[in-house]
Predict the structure.
Amino acid sequence: MKTIFRLATLGLVSALAACGSDAAPGPTEQIIVREPGETPAVTLTKAPENISLAAAGEAAFAVCSACHSVEKGAPAGPGPNLHGVVGRAAGAAEGFAYSEALKTSGISWSEAELDAYLANPVAKVPGTTMVAGALEDAEQRKAVIAYLKDASSS
Ligand code: HEC
């Protein structure tokens, strides 16, 4: 008897289409067929939905990368380097000239705080100098936050 594993598929295509990126990956589906007792053909170290979400977030991050780097130690652009930002205090990337508003906001970047800031930075932190890059689409915000976490883990 054969065992069939169906892995994945997250319908983020519509969210990505809204982003207008050519690099947007379509939904992925992998079907693995194996005989009992065989070694699995693929070893997953992360849940499939997390892989898809971070990949979608990487595509959506194209909007942010005009101003932000995320690789460890990469120089800041008009915006601060975002490596390790999830879980960190706001305004804490070394050497970046943050606004007083963000520095004194008292925010610690939980996923919920990031979500609110990315939805509307100026409403969340009046006086912030991040005046572009808001993401209206909640799915895109979720994906970008997953990507920020993922990109910070290496
Ligand atoms: C036009 C440039 C620009 C774009 C585009 C932009 N940002 Fe920013 N971002 C900034 C600036 C400038 C700051 C610093 C704000 C301040 O000091 O008030 C900032 C701050 C941030 C912070 C807080 C960082 C910290 O260390 O506290 C996060 C998180 C962030 N941006 C995420 C994003 C994401 C995610 C996107 C894309 C969806 C994005 N930004 C798009 C310019 C930009």
User: Anything to note?
Assistant: The chain has two domains: 3-48, 61-152. Residues 1-21 have pLDDT under 50 and may be disordered.
